[in-house]
Amino acid sequence: MAREGAPPAYDPAGHDSGLRSALQELRAGRWMSMRALLEQTTSWPRWTQRTQVLAASAAGTDVVRAWLAEEPGSVPAAVMHARVVVERALRAHREGHARTGELWLQAWHACDAAARSAPYDPVPWVCLLALARLDEGQRWDEHRMAPPEPMLPPGPWGLLAQAGKRDPHNREAHHRMLQFLYPRGGSERLAQAAGFAQWAAGSAPPGSALHVLPLYVRVERYRRSASREAALDLHWVAEDATREARQAYDSWFALTPHEERSPLDMNHLAHALWGALRFSEADRVFEALGPYWTPQPWACRAPGTGSSQRAVEVFLQARTRSRSAAQGGGRRP
Predict the structure, then answer these.
(1) CA 294, 298, 299, 305 torsion: positive or negative?
(2) What range defines the domain where residue 168 resides?
């Protein structure tokens, strides 16, 4: 358990010590530890998560290019290359960079090559899903396919299905689909995103991280609200919000091994349970987090100047309040 009042640390590796070591080596310009780590990764969920975190760190370097040049036949290197160029294209899009279109095309070709090199790997298809959000007008046919349910919007459903064929209920694939839906319009699209999250969680098996997905949509709704903070707090104690938090706790957190829990998912769950006044459950999630945190979703309660420090303060307040209530018998039934 983290020391009472101790400031949390942001570490993309979280409790994954092997990933942390590989990241340290990568930042020093070395790729051997990354290769060894990926060779030892035997589950698709962990493979997806590790390649994502590694690519975010490698995108500003030539480390993966050096690896691929040294071992041109390496399948993990080809997948990591796709990861890196997709990350660069997404960053260019966010920044409005003039080379976005060029980088997008490079990334698409890298994903296509990785999909052919690794036909059983979900990550190339997850990467193509990530690129779909760059097609803001949905001009590509594969980005406006008919949905599997009539209440869901058209979108890159074929790409999601390809990822799911290789890793059913892949966490990142569904988050990428959610990100595709968010920017397309106002309240109607947000309602469609909520419908998608509920559909995904409702079809997910016990232990799946998709049970946390509705909490992300709820944070997005909260973030977009122009109401005063006091009124916004009512958002989290509403019956449906409390139900979503308890469902995520019971169907995911309580059933999932510690090493398989995403720090970002745990932060969203702790935030939702605290907001719903479910202090006992929130305290258990904070305990599992230990010294680690992620800026989201806490930053949604700390907009404006100094938001980073304010987000840390909100996290600490939530952790202290949950721990105090749980230890003092202030648990909600």
Answers:
(1) negative
(2) 9-184
